[in-house]
Specification:
324 residues, alpha+beta
Length: 324
């Protein structure tokens, strides 16, 4: 067990050494990389799904933890995957490409000193919105490796305006400074990681109910006794977490901290696998047929027409039932 703790500590150290090896010199351009004609000169929103280096194993808390550690040991970024959104207007007067990222996780302090245990998945960190330059640079490089796959939607003018309103208010409310755990929802002003942020965009535009996003969600049931502060006062050391039987399996739904979220690696592979099947006219396709498909080097993009979808009119910002 001592060796196991040493190994995890070493992995955390190597993470900070290696993480700079998958960084890029940002290009100066802030213009879209891809040809707008693919979007029929309409407003569009694209979800870019970046794969983790070697995959994430969601079978249990322990497999999730150690598959993340394995990814952290690699010289590649996006340890648990990533998703970003690109939005452009039909007149080319509006263009945005962004997502949420953390600025300082301080994993050693959280795990060793604060002893939050598996609460690492629920913790809050300082955050920021990624810039166009950063994402344009990264995607231009990852088209060649195929470590990014894309789902795009044509949207109407009212949906474009609703997105612009949401992003502006998101910044005004300081939500762009909060990188939060998978259990948080930015529409309740709780901050967000990349997946909750992009899901919230899909939700406010009504795209989350589109057939193309069927089976994108995953739920996990975290045992409460391996989660430390602030969810409970009692600290959970790495030793205690590794030795707990609860670390080996997800909890009963009634006794767990339940989290539902986009499974980014799963979506990445769904796009890639189904795009290939569409192109060869296979009968094994498991998602809705898109309006168009294209291949950009080793990256696939599926395009759906949702211009006839009614833009939701419900409030963008919500309140918990027990809030004052």
């Amino acid at each position: 067990m001592i060796f196991l703790i040493f190994l995890v500590s070493l992995c955390i150290l190597l993470f900070f050494i290696y993480k700079k090896t998958d960084t890029y010199t940002n290009i100066k351009s802030t213009s879209p990389l891809l040809d707008k004609s693919f979007y029929n000169n309409q407003n569009s929103i694209s979800f870019y799904f970046f794969s983790s280096p070697f995959g994430i194993n969601w079978e249990s808390p322990s497999t999730l933890f150690f598959s993340s550690v394995k990814n952290a040991l690699s010289p590649f970024n996006r340890i648990i995957g990533h998703v970003a959104i690109e939005v452009r207007s039909k007149d080319n007067q509006y263009y945005e490409f962004t997502s949420m990222t953390d600025t300082k996780k301080d994993l050693y302090k959280r795990l060793v000193i604060d002893q939050i245990g598996f609460g690492l998945a629920l913790a809050n960190y300082p955050g920021r919105l990624e810039t166009k330059n950063q994402l344009l640079t990264e995607t231009s490089k990852k088209f060649s490796s195929g470590r990014v796959q894309i789902v795009s939607y044509l949207i109407n003018d009212s949906s474009l305006e609703r997105f612009k309103k949401y992003l502006a208010e998101y910044k005004e409310k300081g939500q762009d400074k909060k990188y939060s755990g998978l259990d948080k929802n930015p529409r309740f002003e709780e901050g967000a990681g990349c997946a909750p942020f992009c899901f919230s965009v899909s939700e406010i535009l009504g795209l989350n109910n589109h057939i193309s996003q069927k089976d994108w969600l995953r739920s996990i049931y975290i045992p409460q006794n391996i989660v430390g502060p602030p969810h409970q006062k009692k600290k959970v050391s790495l030793w205690k977490m590794f030795n707990s039987p609860s670390f080996q399996k997800w909890a009963n739904k009634k006794e767990a901290i339940t989290i539902t979220f986009w499974d980014l690696d799963k979506i990445f592979h769904m796009i890639k696998d189904n795009a290939k099947k569409f192109l060869i006219k296979s009968n094994e396709v498991k998602i809705a047929k898109p309006l168009k498909i294209r291949k950009i080097q080793k990256t696939y993009e599926l395009l759906y027409d949702t211009t006839n979808l009614d833009t939701p009119t419900e409030p963008i910002w919500l309140k918990r039932e027990n809030s004052i």
